[in-house]
Amino acid sequence: MERWLEEFIHYLAVERGLAQNTLASYRIDLNQYLDHLKKQGVTSLGQADRNHILSHLYNLQKDRKAPATISRHLAALKHFYRFLLSDGMVVEDITLNLESPKLAQRLPQVLSTGEVEMLLSQPQLADPAGMRDKAMLELIYATGIRVSELVSLNLQDVELAMGYVRCFGKGAKERIIPLGSVAVQFVGEYLARSRVKLTKGKAEHQALFVNVQGKRLTRQGFWKIIKKYAREGKIDKPITPHTLRHSFATHLLENGADLRSVQEMLGHADISTTQIYTHLTKIRLREVYNSAHPRA
């Protein structure tokens, strides 16, 4: 059974071009399912039936997994069985017509423009790592790119003279995003006088943002950095690596940007994913109305 799982992962990587993080998620979820089948005495995927799927999902629910986690598991199983059916490994898709649990729409946490200013003013610019942090925070707020895209940037992906950044999102899809003048300024200063100190002059290193050992910064490294500055700036909101991305999208829409343009900059395949930010702008309008109108 594991062989077919590896065949499926290879298909997702080569033919679908999915990112490594997505592939890892598929592998973990489907390995849990295969472990469940083994405990039930199933030795081949052709022996599994709909009840095995349902009992696996029930076990996840019994383990108090969130509805979003159960939905992700079921989505992985649906893709897996479609692949198995197309390759003739099974004679039917036993996931057909199985529905995911209903999910409550969770609105992303967004900073106000004042909170963004406070967060972005925390790095100490005299310190090479502080200048790097300032450049990173300005760049991610200016472009709305994902943290995984930020830490994957190479030197050649940023064109300061033209004012744009090139990144590769989910499915290795390339997109070009404008870079504002403030971000251009601080990325330029970081490249001119701070990055060389962090890399110890090793010119062969292509990573745009590096840690104090001169190696490519990781997502975990960025997570620690943004949490540190949120704490120092006394920002009383939960901060995640995606908070500035959410704030970027919301602030654009609040200031009149059209939904399609924001979708393109964020790299969303489906505009419905971008539409969640319109809910945030409506909430913000209601807050302004309630605080300012005499008869609110």
UniProtKB/TrEMBL annotation:
<keyword id="KW-0159">Chromosome partition</keyword>
<keyword id="KW-0233">DNA recombination</keyword>
<keyword id="KW-0238">DNA-binding</keyword>
<dbReference type="InterPro" id="IPR044068">
    <property type="entry name" value="CB"/>
</dbReference>
<feature type="active site">
    <location>
        <position position="242"/>
    </location>
</feature>
<dbReference type="InterPro" id="IPR050090">
    <property type="entry name" value="Tyrosine_recombinase_XerCD"/>
</dbReference>
<keyword id="KW-0229">DNA integration</keyword>
<dbReference type="GO" id="GO:0051301">
    <property type="term" value="P:cell division"/>
</dbReference>
<feature type="active site">
    <location>
        <position position="268"/>
    </location>
</feature>
<comment type="function">
    <text>Site-specific tyrosine recombinase, which acts by catalyzing the cutting and rejoining of the recombining DNA molecules. The XerC-XerD complex is essential to convert dimers of the bacterial chromosome into monomers to permit their segregation at cell division. It also contributes to the segregational stability of plasmids.</text>
</comment>
<feature type="active site" description="O-(3'-phospho-DNA)-tyrosine intermediate">
    <location>
        <position position="277"/>
    </location>
</feature>
<dbReference type="GO" id="GO:0009037">
    <property type="term" value="F:tyrosine-based site-specific recombinase activity"/>
</dbReference>
<dbReference type="GO" id="GO:0003677">
    <property type="term" value="F:DNA binding"/>
</dbReference>
<dbReference type="GO" id="GO:0006313">
    <property type="term" value="P:DNA transposition"/>
</dbReference>
<feature type="domain" description="Tyr recombinase">
    <location>
        <begin position="106"/>
        <end position="290"/>
    </location>
</feature>
<keyword id="KW-0963">Cytoplasm</keyword>
<feature type="domain" description="Core-binding (CB)">
    <location>
        <begin position="1"/>
        <end position="85"/>
    </location>
</feature>
<comment type="similarity">
    <text>Belongs to the 'phage' integrase family. XerD subfamily.</text>
</comment>
<feature type="active site">
    <location>
        <position position="245"/>
    </location>
</feature>
<dbReference type="InterPro" id="IPR011932">
    <property type="entry name" value="Recomb_XerD"/>
</dbReference>
<dbReference type="InterPro" id="IPR011010">
    <property type="entry name" value="DNA_brk_join_enz"/>
</dbReference>
<dbReference type="InterPro" id="IPR004107">
    <property type="entry name" value="Integrase_SAM-like_N"/>
</dbReference>
<feature type="active site">
    <location>
        <position position="170"/>
    </location>
</feature>
<dbReference type="GO" id="GO:0007059">
    <property type="term" value="P:chromosome segregation"/>
</dbReference>
<protein>
    <recommendedName>
        <fullName>Tyrosine recombinase XerD</fullName>
    </recommendedName>
</protein>
<dbReference type="InterPro" id="IPR002104">
    <property type="entry name" value="Integrase_catalytic"/>
</dbReference>
<keyword id="KW-0131">Cell cycle</keyword>
<keyword id="KW-0132">Cell division</keyword>
<dbReference type="InterPro" id="IPR010998">
    <property type="entry name" value="Integrase_recombinase_N"/>
</dbReference>
<feature type="active site">
    <location>
        <position position="146"/>
    </location>
</feature>
<dbReference type="Pfam" id="PF02899">
    <property type="entry name" value="Phage_int_SAM_1"/>
</dbReference>
<dbReference type="InterPro" id="IPR013762">
    <property type="entry name" value="Integrase-like_cat_sf"/>
</dbReference>
<comment type="subunit">
    <text>Forms a cyclic heterotetrameric complex composed of two molecules of XerC and two molecules of XerD.</text>
</comment>
<dbReference type="Pfam" id="PF00589">
    <property type="entry name" value="Phage_integrase"/>
</dbReference>
<dbReference type="InterPro" id="IPR023009">
    <property type="entry name" value="Tyrosine_recombinase_XerC/XerD"/>
</dbReference>
<dbReference type="GO" id="GO:0005737">
    <property type="term" value="C:cytoplasm"/>
</dbReference>
